[in-house]
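Subject: complex prediction, re-run

Hi both,

The earlier run crashed halfway through, so I resubmitted it with identical inputs.
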Amino acid sequence: MEKNRIISGCKLLIIGGSAGSLEVLMKILPGLNTLPSFAIVLVLHRKSTEDTTLEELIAIKTNIPVREVEDKTPLLPGYLYVAPSDYHLLFEKNDVLSLDISEKVNYSRPSIDVSFESAAEIYGKSLVGLLLSGANADGTEGLLAIKKAGGTTVVQNPESAQMPTMPQNAITYTAPDYILDIEHILKFITLINS
Amino acid sequence: MIDDRELEVLINEVYEYHGFDFGGYSRASLKRRVDRLYQLDGFSNFSEMLSKVRSEPGYFKRMVEEITVNVTEMFRDPLFYKVLREEVLPILGTKPFIRFWHAGCSSGEEVYSMAILLKEANLLHKSLLYATDINPIVLDTAKKGIFPLQMMKQYSENYMTSGGKKDFSHYYTANYGFAKFGEDLSEKMVFSEHNLVSDGSFNEFDLILCRNVLIYFDKDLQERALCLFDESLAKLGYLALGTKETIKFSPIQNRFRQLNREKIWRKTE
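This time it finished cleanly. Structure:
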């Protein structure tokens, strides 16, 4: 792990997770107060049902206002966005979110790789990518793209993950800037732009 | 990978050489599709791709086919179809003749889903389903009504969630890994090429379905398409969009009223 530099100039924190990641978020989100200088986007593998249970569950756990993502939803600092089920979530140049129903990637839609790569193109150095617990290999290519674009990459310590495969795969192939336990992830996020 | 400038060059050249205008497409998705094609076809540099697109009409066709997203399914979002079944079709059914337009129908799965609903509501005989797409190749698939058999399990589940009571498999004949849907469903369908970017209104409809097509357009092009739908809808006609699409920011919204939480709007004047 690199020295514990404080991240500054962050416009977007994008978090990818699969099996076992919701538990992590349930621990982290209540600890976060308002984060007015950047937006958070969650890309979680979820069932392709059309309800908004996940959004509601997350909204209960956090003080950060949760915005439902529809086509061309503006991405604003201070808000938390959840990628809807059965769409890929993409980023446009004018700070707008767009959606796409093209083929699944890594058997997933939303795919973490797709959103991470798209965010990396738009936000470059101003992007922090965090990959949590999961049982497949989604997210690794996305973290590589974030790194290549000059962003910061963080991976949950696989030993603290319910499903270590996804973070472990990312560590093996990407050499992330930070590998953090759950409590350190919380601390890391609160220090962004501080 | 192509860069942003190259993408704009490609868009301009395609318009110049082939008359197709992708300028109003959302860039994030378009760039992903073009990149995918670039890799799929093993180009070593952008100018190689560009000259092939310019000079080979067959390759341009392939490009249109590959960069437009043609992922679709039968009874996608089953609860949407349930609302059509229970709330919209009974009202449309009072008309002597019902016209539908599936704008951006892709390979036709949603058109066949609609035909099944109409058949079950005993309305298909007095209905006409226009189905259009920019891409002639997917329209050929749609005309045939032949879909991969492996999808039928999921479609059958969707169908049941939408309120379907029959055995879904009686709508198709299974053969060599494909399911062919009956001509009793397709006889009321009319397939035709239509480009939402450049073509106009061609009839008056009672229900226009355009689901998960507008997500690929920027705001201006969305506005154009929405105005086209507004023009093409009969008084008290319905407009149905995808679950994450809306008319909320469009001037046409004043003339429409939304049905509960569904992405279905009724023209009020």
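Chain B touches chain A at residues 26-29, 31-33, 69, 71, 77, 79, 212, 214-216, 219, 222, 242-246 (CB under 8 Å).

- K.
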